[in-house]
Design a protein that fits this description.
With 158 residues, the chain is of the alpha+beta class. The protein has one domain (24-149): Alpha-Beta Plaits, CATH 3.30.70.640. The protein has helices at residues 38-46, 54-72, 112-130; strands spanning 24-35, 81-91, 96-107, 138-148, 155-156. The chain has a 5-stranded antiparallel beta sheet. It is elongated, with a radius of gyration of 17 Å. The two termini are 18 Å apart.
Length: 158
């Protein structure tokens, strides 16, 4: 395992200096799911939720969150994101919604935290919009699936 880069020799937290690193195309893909009651999933699918288009609002919230990641995660660098995409897949057999978030930039540091932050805020927004009818929803399996670019190159979850 490589050393933790967010600490200096004295063990103090620091923001990593990426100033001398070359820019490269960077991409990260994160995914997770939210499970719920069958009736809640039906409300979302049929667009009959009183608060409106649950997935549309959640997608917008997730995109906004990717852009605010350095405001939430102390050692993240502000990035000029070039692309964010959020997709949903309904898993009717398990009363769940699978969500994936892709974040891209061209820069000196990766976008894994942006993809993961966007994912979590997307799922939290679904929870927030549906909690009045289903407080037992569960967010799970939040994970990085793939990243590319930079010195460490391409990584993909087995």
């Amino acid at each position: 395992m490589s050393k933790l880069t967010h600490f200096n020799q004295a063990g103090e937290a620091r923001m990593v200096d990426v100033g001398n690193k070359p820019s490269s195309a960077r991409r990260a893909l994160a995914a997770g799911r939210i499970s719920m009651q069958a009736e809640t999933l039906q409300l979302i699918q049929q667009g009959k939720h009183k608060k409106g288009d649950v997935l549309g609002v959640a997608r917008t919230a997730g995109i906004m969150a990717t852009k605010r990641t350095p405001d939430l995660i102390p050692m993240c660098h502000p990035l000029a994101l070039t692309h964010v995409e959020i997709n949903f897949e309904i898993d009717a057999d398990n009363n769940a919604i699978e969500c994936s978030v892709t974040a891209e930039t061209r820069g000196q540091t990766g976008v894994e935290m942006e993809a993961l932050t966007g994912l979590q805020i997307t799922l939290l927004t679904i929870y927030d919009m549906c909690k009045a009818v289903d407080r037992g929803m569960v967010m799970s399996d939040l994970r990085l699936l793939e990243k590319s670019g930079g010195e460490s190159g391409h990584w993909k979850r087995d």
